[in-house]
C-alpha cells in the first residue's frame, strides 16, 4: 500500500500487510499525517480489512516515514509494535529530548564541522513528532510473531543502527537498505564521532544481504524488483568508488580540510551551491560517514587538537 509522504520527493512509503490467523501484520506504517492515515485506511478497506484488525507492526527502522503511524495503528487495534533494539533505544532518546536541546545539538554539530555563518534554523528540518515507543524489540535472526509464517529478522545496520530487513520465504522486505534505483542516506551524527562507523556497517550489511541470494526485493520506496543480492553488490561498489574518490581528493588537497569543505568538494545529485541548507547538512553527514570509514581503514587521519575537526591524507 503506497502511503504518501507529504512534501517529500520520495512521494510515498510502501507499507506491506502479511496475512495471519490473528490478523494482518504490517511491515512499516508510514508518515504521521492525516493524508497518510487516510491512504492506509483506504488501502485496508480495498482488501476488505479494517485497521482495527491489525495484529502487529514491524518497523524496519525508526525514521518517521516508516514508524510515524505505528502508534496510531496501535491505538485503533491494540497491535504490538516491534523494531530492532538499537533503534528502540534511539526512540527512547528522541522522546526524552526537548526541542531546544535538539536545536543546540544541531548547532554545535554544524559548528564543529566548519559550517561557519550557517543559519541553523534553516539548516535543520522541522523536527517530526518522535515515533511511538515499541512494545517489543528484535535481534538478528529472530522469528517475528506472525502466526503461520516464518518471517525472520535480519539486522542490516547503516541507514540507522537498528535497520532491519525481513525474509519471508523467497522474498525480502528491504526497508530502505536496498532500493532499486536510489541509495539510502548513510550519515554519522554528530559528524565527528569516533566510536561508530555507520558506512562500514552498511557495507557489511550489503554483503549479508547479497548472501541471501537472488530473492525478490520488496522495498519501502520506489518499486518491487528481482535479485536483491545483485543490487546490494551494485550499491556496495558505488560506495567503494566514492571512498576511493574521497581519498584521492584529500591526497591532492595538500592540506587538512574540514568536513564542510570536503562535503562541498564532493559530487552530489546537484551542485553544492544549489543544495538547500538542510540538504547541505545531510550531505555533510554522508561525507562524514565516508571519512570515518577511511579513517577506520587507516587510509586517512584526523588532525588532533584542532577545532573544527579536520582530516588529511596520511602522507600530508
UniProtKB/TrEMBL annotation:
For molecular function, the Gene Ontology terms on record are: hydrolase activity
Which InterPro entries does the annotation name?
A: Metallo-B-lactamas, RibonucZ/Hydroxyglut_hydro, Sec-metab_biosynth-thioest, WH-like_DNA-bd_sf
Keyword Hydrolase in the entry? The reply is: yes
The UniProt record lists the Metallo-beta-lactamase domain at 12-221
Pfam families xrefs: Lactamase_B
Q: Which residues form a coiled coil?
A: none
UniProt keywords (A-Z) are: Hydrolase
What SUPFAM superfamilies has UniProt attached to this entry?
A: Metallo-hydrolase/oxidoreductase
Q: Write down what this protein is called.
A: Glyoxylase-like metal-dependent hydrolase (Beta-lactamase superfamily II)
Q: Which organism is it from?
A: Nonomuraea endophytica
Taxonomic lineage from the root: Bacteria, Bacillati, Actinomycetota, Actinomycetes, Streptosporangiales
Amino acid at each position: 500500500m503506497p502511503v504518501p509522504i507529504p512534501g517529500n520527493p520520495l512521494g510515498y512509503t510502501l507499507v506491506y500487510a502479511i496475512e495471519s490467523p490473528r490478523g494482518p501484520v504490517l511491515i512499516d506504517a508510514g508518515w504521521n499525517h492525516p493524508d497518510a492515515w487516510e491512504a492506509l485506511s483506504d488501502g485496508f478497506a480495498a482488501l476488505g480489512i479494517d485497521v482495527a484488525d491489525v495484529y502487529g507492526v514491524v518497523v524496519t527502522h525508526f525514521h518517521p516515514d516508516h514508524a510515524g503511524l505505528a502508534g496510531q495503528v496501535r491505538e485503533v487495534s491494540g497491535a504490538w509494535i516491534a523494531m530492532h533494539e538499537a533503534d528502540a533505544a534511539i526512540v527512547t532518546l528522541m522522546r526524552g529530548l526537548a526541542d531546544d536541546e535538539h536545536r543546540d545539538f544541531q548547532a554545535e554539530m554544524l559548528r564543529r564541522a566548519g559550517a561557519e555563518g550557517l543559519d541553523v534554523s534553516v539548516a535543520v528540518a522541522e523536527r517530526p513528532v518522535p515515533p511511538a515507543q515499541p512494545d517489543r524489540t528484535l535481534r538478528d535472526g529472530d522469528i517475528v510473531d506472525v502466526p503461520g509464517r516464518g518471517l525472520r529478522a535480519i539486522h542490516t545496520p547503516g541507514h540507522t543502527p537498528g535497520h532491519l530487513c525481513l525474509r519471508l520465504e523467497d522474498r525480502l522486505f528491504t526497508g530502505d537498505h536496498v532500493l532499486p534505483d536510489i541509495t539510502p542516506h548513510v550519515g554519522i551524527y554528530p559528524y565527528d564521532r569516533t566510536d561508530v562507523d555507520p558506512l562500514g556497517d552498511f557495507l557489511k550489511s550489503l554483503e549479508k544481504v547479497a548472501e541471501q541470494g537472488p530473492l525478490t526485493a520488496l522495498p519501502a520506496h520506489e518499486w518491487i524488483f528481482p535479485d536483491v543480492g545483485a543490487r546490494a553488490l551494485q550499491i556496495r561498489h558505488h560506495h567503494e568508488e566514492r571512498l576511493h574518490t574521497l581519498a584521492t581528493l584529500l591526497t591532492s588537497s595538500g592540506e587538512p580540510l574540514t568536513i564542510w569543505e570536503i562535503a562541498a568538494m564532493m559530487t552530489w545529485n546537484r551542485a553544492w551551491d544549489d543544495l538547500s541548507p538542510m540538504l547541505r547538512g545531510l550531505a555533510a553527514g554522508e561525507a562524514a560517514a565516508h571519512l570515518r570509514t577511511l579513517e577506520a581503514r587507516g587510509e586517512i587521519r584526523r588532525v588532533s587538537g584542532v577545532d573544527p575537526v579536520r582530516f588529511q591524507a596520511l602522507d600530508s
